[in-house]
Amino acid sequence: MQVSRTFYARGQTGQQLLIGAYQALSRQIALGSVVMYNRHEMLDLVMIDGKARGIIVRNLLTGKLERFAAHCVILATGGYGNVFYLSTNAMGCNVTAAWRAVKRGALMANPCYTQIHPTCIPVSGEYQSKLTLMSESLRNDGRVWVPKDKKDVEAIRSGNLAAQDLPEDRRDYYLERRYPAFGNLVPRDVASRAAKVVCDDGLGVNKSGLAVFLDFAEAIQRYGKSEAHAKGIENANPAAIIKLGEKVIETKYGNLFEMYEKITGENPYKTPMMIYPAVHYTMGGLWVDYNLETNIPGLFALGECNFSDHGANRLGASALMQGLADGYFVIPYTVGTYLAADIRTPSISTNHDAFAKVEQEVNDRLNKLLSVKGSQTVEQFHRRLGMIMWDHCGMSRTAEGLSKAKTMIQELRSEYWNDVIVPGEQNEFNPELEKAMRVADFMEMGEMMVEDALHRNESCGGHFREEYQTPEGEALRNDADFTYVAAWEWRDDQDSVLHQEPLKFEKVELKTRSYK
Predict the structure, then answer these.
(1) Which tens digits make up the pLDDT trace of 475-516?
(2) Domains identified in the chain, total number
(3) 52-80 pLDDT, tens per residue?
(4) Strand ranges for 156-202 from DSSP E
(5) Range(s) of the domain holding residue 226
(6) Which of 30, 122, 359, 427 is most buried as measured by Cβ atoms within 10 A of its Cβ?
(7) CATH number of the domain residue 493 falls in
């Protein structure tokens, strides 16, 4: 018996978590125990005697560089999914804070693991800069399919055939066919790769060939008949059944259907949705121990910017889990323990030579970008980087493609520092300069992701190497050689250095999952 894959609360789970956090923060600000600095971005980490002792930030409104000193530093700066350019992440999400820590010696763990979300609105054109996520809960009721015959595919693409008019016997419900025990409820990485396979076979249903259908017609009929029975309506006509069923679907997913129609111009109650996988969540991040402390003493990392709780097989709800676990149960106690050992250390002064040195390094980087005065915009470079990452380090990877991608990223980075144009000045409101710094960091991060994917000769979770799959096309793990966390140390102009943290399973037996 199948149950719901996830429960949809109209997007309110994360929303309520945010509201609760904002309220708690606002209370502390009102009490004077917390000072909030809006529109500031961390651009580097300051270390004194081997410990994290502060940060250099840029005031995004004035452009002024500012110093902040402390006995320890906590990063809770999110993930790096926008290295792919197109993703479901907010446009401002970036890797800069975490990457600046890496450049100061912090280890980046499992960077190649990327969660590709199967239920997103497909790309509509090259002009697009962001993708829209639809809830995973839609797969509770929606059935995923493509036409069996390429002639039907062409007819649908050209508008000569409506998807809802294609007879059942000419449809391939490929998830139900490949995974009869789980059907449309398989995990995200499995559903995403399956969509890629059928689209690679030329069965994608939109003009780009990169979309599959998510169909609610069967659910509408099922719910409509159930509602008619519950209301004591005997021999309900088809129109009444559809109306009752649509009402149930509206109650469950109404705002999602409304959002889909506004974006695509199509009514998903009447015609199947089109969906395709997109980058959603990054499962790698700064290496931390059980105290959420990185290998740099005094530098802590919480949430998606660390690698820990979401792991390589993330299925969902980690934002909720990490918000509660990292932010509420762990860090208040572990930071306290760390500070207890530092209790005799006086206040850290921003006048320390280390702050002046790091600030000057940040200033030099900013001026270097402004002085290039090339011919290509930051956006153009970011888009090209994203295409390299998506094509060669996206849903599936190969050794050949990854090797090619590494060279392409290195060449792109060299071109960037010689031909990017960043208008404006440093000491002013300059969004292009903000973006330029972030994209520079994305390029180095992208290279490390490719290195991690290239070294891991197996398929596992959010990392799928085409050379390592079963005869049925499923992920083929190599537990004998790769049961470890891959923590990478960045070296400028050299290959990154791999550090291994063995994974030990004491309470559970390590097994290969199956959804057949």
Answers:
(1) 999 999 999 999 999 999 999 999 999 999 899 888 888 888
(2) 2
(3) 999 999 999 999 999 999 999 999 999 99
(4) 171-172
(5) 117-279
(6) 122
(7) 3.50.50.60
